Amino acid sequence: MTEHAPGTQAPPPERTTYRVTYAVAGTAAIRWTDVTVLPGHSQESDIPGIVAARLTGRPADRRLITLLGLRAL
To answer: Do residues 49 and 35 touch, judged by C-beta distance below 8 A?
Structure first.
């Protein structure tokens, strides 16, 4: 474990960016986007909700998103 000087914070956790290939229910198009997850705030299982929020403004629409591929950049 790394110790830090009193009054200082640990550096932020590493971010992971993924290239996400997905389809939206009711459309024939295959799309892609880059999504960054930050440990402690989001994880890979949150990606459909993140993509849905970008498209519709509602993370609850995650059921409309089908992930076809996920590749770390």
So the answer is: no
- As a dihedral over the C-alpha atoms of residue 36, residue 37, residue 41, residue 43, rounded to 10 degrees, the angle is 150
Dihedral angle at the C-alpha atoms of 52, 56, 66, 31, nearest 10 degrees?
Answer: -100
DSSP3 helix / strand / coil % (the chain, rounded to 5): 25, 35, 40
Write the pLDDT tens digit of every residue in 45-71: 999 999 999 999 999 999 999 999 999
**For strand 16-24 and strand 30-37, is the pairing parallel, antiparallel, or unpaired?**
antiparallel
User: Which own/partner pairs from 40-49 qualify as long-range (CB within 8 Å, at least 24 positions apart)?
Assistant: 40/13, 44/18, 44/70, 47/18, 47/20, 48/22
Amino acid at residue number 53: A
- pTM of the model as a whole: 0.78
